[in-house]
């Protein structure tokens, strides 16, 4: 096999793993098992697929901080939900954020994130599809979530939990792959939460670059006071 063939084979294998990750039906055991096996080669695979979601999400967090939040960037408490190996945290640190926490369903992915040293604290075994986590309400100025509202991963209802953890007038920044936005009730969930006074969709980058074969939408939500007052039943 020549070098070009080897590269093509690597690209193909990376695309296959990414595709396989979309068929996990939001099942916590299957997701955790899959990502346990993928943690070592995840960064290489998504790099081959020209994954630029983390850079865009981090830069949106930077813009939101500059535009709307008082205080130095280094004092803004920011949570990376579904942090994976820490690609978003590394970008956040690059642009000056310092109080960065993260969580992930997969302990192996979370351990990779810890090893970046971009984070203050990272928890594994946190399921955004499960009952409300033990993160306190109103804990963060900004919560970011990249690559997690994607097919087979976290259901739209997970957005409610991100709002709860974020302080009133803080922001939730999330990517949704276009295929996810089309196949799920994410937009209805946004409307439902808006009607319930939980959050307001403040800005949206439509159809932005994400991976080589697919674009994503990037959402910025502002959290209201109601987000933490309400205790809605979650499925
Ligand atoms: C495509 S990766 C994205 C990781 C990282 N945010 C990034 O942009 O590179 C999806 C991540 O979501 C995590 N994940 C999947 N389902 C989850 C759930 N129900 N709760 C929390 N994390 C979950 C996976 O373990 C994985 O690390």
TrEMBL record:
A GO molecular function for this record?
methyltransferase activity
Write the record's keywords in alphabetical order, separated by commas: Methyltransferase, Transferase
UniProt name for this protein: Class I SAM-dependent methyltransferase
Q: Give EC number(s), comma-separated.
A: 2.1.-.-
Matching Gene3D superfamilies:
Vaccinia Virus protein VP39
Which residue ranges does the record assign to the Methyltransferase domain? 78-170
Give the GO terms filed under biological process for this record.
Answer: methylation
Reply yes or no: does the keyword Magnesium apply. no
